[in-house]
Write a structure and sequence with these properties.
By secondary structure, the protein is of the alpha+beta class. 47% of the residues lie in helices and 11% in strands. The chain has a five-stranded antiparallel β-sheet with strand order 2-1-8-7-6, sandwiched between helices. A three-stranded antiparallel β-sheet has the order 3-5-4. Bound molecules: glutamine.
């Protein structure tokens, strides 16, 4: 792959941002420029390519969820984690209260808000701020990145409380599915979603899963990658697995991360989202790149 290849694919994909919309429910996101577009590709041999607005920092939002899962697998082990959350895909939106109710208050998978809220409530630490800070330091150490907490977005999120997420946390709390109080679980969740970095940081996080370091259990990375494949893009996960075939996770900020085991990680950032909540231009870029370099795990 050359920089010219990436430039060409990025130029074609940028245009697909037009079919998406920048979400408005987090006020600070409404200020995002729909034309922002950045990509970073990294390999375990430390080859790096980036194109576009690569200096922009953005919140990870739900792209943090695979790392929430990895962190807790490392801290508690698989048995305890999967007593707290399931591993079934869902055909309902990422913040569906109905899904949780249908499942008798047991969070269906860690890529949904319900699953992530249940997991972060079990993080070590005395309160939301300590839990998020320990997690941030762990990620920075493991992946060699410099994630920071985006205080501006965090105040924006807290200034317009997300009733759907609060209702989910309430149901989880009433069913004794949280490791902390409802308030602390929501606070921790909002904070970890507001961890921010550049596309290079995101690609380096992806490398943690692509080529696990000696400090991380490789079985835990396999579990995370499998769940990214089946659940990472919500309702679009199954179709993407067939058409593209690489574990991928999206976030409402427009962040998108794909991991090709042993080969590398691809991070994209483009704020306009499709109707499911996945970055429209980012998905287009991944599809083209995967086709061009035959990245599918199933081929
Ligand atoms: N913080 C966001 C929310 O709960 C994360 C969801 C996402 O990125 N899909 O709505």
């Amino acid at each position: 792959m050359t920089l010219a290849d990436l430039d060409l694919l990025a130029a074609q994909s940028r245009r697909h941002a037009e079919i998406g919309r920048v979400p408005k429910y987090i006020p600070s996101f409404a200020r995002a420029n729909p034309n922002w577009f950045a990509v970073h590709v990294a390999t375990p041999l430390q080859q790096h390519w980036s194109v576009g607005d690569r200096h922009l920092a953005f919140c990870l939002m739900s792209v943090v969820k695979p790392f929430v899962l990895l962190y807790l697998l490392e801290k508690l082990g698989s048995d305890q984690v999967f007593q707290a959350v399931g591993m079934q895909p869902s055909d309902l939106p990422f913040n569906s209260l109905m899904q949780l109710q249908t499942d008798h208050s047991f969070p269906r998978n860690p890529m949904l808000n319900s699953g992530a809220i249940a997991l972060v409530s079990r993080f070590p630490g005395l309160n939301g701020s300590e839990r998020c800070e320990y997690f941030r330091q762990w990620l920075n150490r493991q992946a060699g990145v410099t994630l920071h907490l985006d205080h501006d977005t965090l105040s924006s999120v807290k200034g317009l409380p997300n009733e759907q997420n609060r209702a989910i946390a309430q149901v989880l709390g009433e069913a004794h599915q949280l490791g902390s109080s409802v308030g602390d679980a929501i606070d921790t969740y909002e904070r970890v979603c507001c961890l921010a970095g550049t596309v290079e940081d995101l690609a380096k996080l992806g490398l943690l899963l692509a080529q696990p370091r000696a400090t991380v259990n490789p079985n835990h990375c396999c579990t995370v990658l499998a769940i990214m494949t089946t659940c990472g893009l919500y309702e679009a996960s199954a179709q993407f697995a067939v058409e593209v075939g690489i574990p991928t996770k999206s976030g409402v900020s427009g962040a998108l991360l794909s991991v090709v085991p042993r080969e590398g990680a691809i991070a994209c950032y483009s704020p306009p989202l499709d109707s499911i909540g996945n970055s429209a231009a980012g998905l287009h870029f991944l599809k083209q790149l995967a086709r061009r370099f035959h990245l599918t795990l199933f081929g």
